[in-house]
Amino acid sequence: MASAYTPGLKIVSKTLVEKDRKLPLLGEVRVKKGDKVKAESVVASTNLPGNVFMVNIANLLSIEPHEIKDFLKKKEGDRVEKDDIIAETTGFFGFFKSCVRSPIKGSIENLSTATGQAVLREPPIPVEVHAYVDGEIDDIYPNEGVKIKTTATYIQGIFGIGGEVTGLLEVVSSSPDAVLEKDDIKPVHAGKIIVGGSLVTAEALQKAIDVGVRGVIVGGYDAHDLKEFLGYDLGVAITGTEEKGITLVVTEGFGKIQMAHKTYELLKAAEGMKTSINGATQIRAGVIRPEVIIPLIVEAHDEQVHQGNNGMLVGTSVRIIRQPHFGEVAKVVNLPEKPVVIESEAKVRVVDIETTSGLKLTLPRANVEIIEE
Fold this sequence. Notes:
Blueprint (H helix, E strand, L loop, with lengths): L7 E15 L5 E2 L6 E2 L4 E7 L3 E5 H5 L17 E2 L4 E4 L10 E3 L4 E6 L5 E5 L3 E6 L4 E7 L3 E12 L2 E3 L2 E8 L7 E2 L12 E3 L3 E2 L1 H10 L3 E7 L1 H8 L16 E8 L6 H9 L4 E5 L12 E5 L21 E4 L8 E6 L5 E2 L5 E2 L1 E6 L4 E5 L3 E5 L1
Parallel strand pairs: 1-29, 15-17, 16-18, 17-19, 19-20
Antiparallel strand pairs: 1-13, 2-4, 3-12, 4-11, 5-10, 6-9, 7-8, 9-10, 12-13, 13-22, 14-20, 15-21, 21-22, 23-24, 23-29, 24-27, 25-26, 27-28
């Protein structure tokens, strides 16, 4: 039987999800292999060095660099508060003194008689890495972090903004083609991750922020609204670092696009469950997809999970990723082995598909992506 491999999105009811949680620099791992953790659990921590400030004592006191040692009131390693005196001249009969004060709260890291400068450093910045998902510690990276595994419903999106958030899932839109409007957002949704249908309006997204919604999962979002929301053109940069007070995961694409029925049904079935989402997206090399992770309670005798992508086969679900049928979901009905000349006169390998509406199409394989189920 003919088959082909095409990268695609994962929309899986039950699969093994593994997440590496690492510190930006070496620190302390605070859990052990086999520990059960919650999404909010701190699994590793460290301290980032504080910001450095240079103070030119010699210039400020109008002395030679090697003379600063005669006027110092603090020594290397001393802690200082903002405006503490670091160095001071004796003045004239106790009058007309000149002094140098610390511009920060921190410590004196270095005093140089060669340059006449003091190096001050702000206090260390504590950094904690949270588990992000409920699960089990599967492996330890000494002084660096951990690997967490969990059996979960796993859904990848097309695009997202905002970082990692966790909350209870609530489906707000009544159907996968319904538009999530401003009036659909209620105060009761504060702290939750809500699910819309084909589109979330700019007004609805702003109200979600005002109410305190942690995240929104929706089929589509208007590209113009995105620019207005962010305040700049996104381009091809990686997303996920935006601090807008909410995380958005778009499952289908830009514009009003009905959420895939399977995606909507999986989210509907998980309503009320603790859910972790991340809007981080990178569309160039090293692709990063926004994701929805809903950890499941799995009994010891019920551990069968999705095994991953086996390539494109007859019967495989795919999504069309080019116009004029962008976003439509279809099934593969045939995989012709020989390349075919298409309208652009290019000779490419194609796939025969049938959409959910019954439309039969022949498209270049590059124009579809697998939906892993």
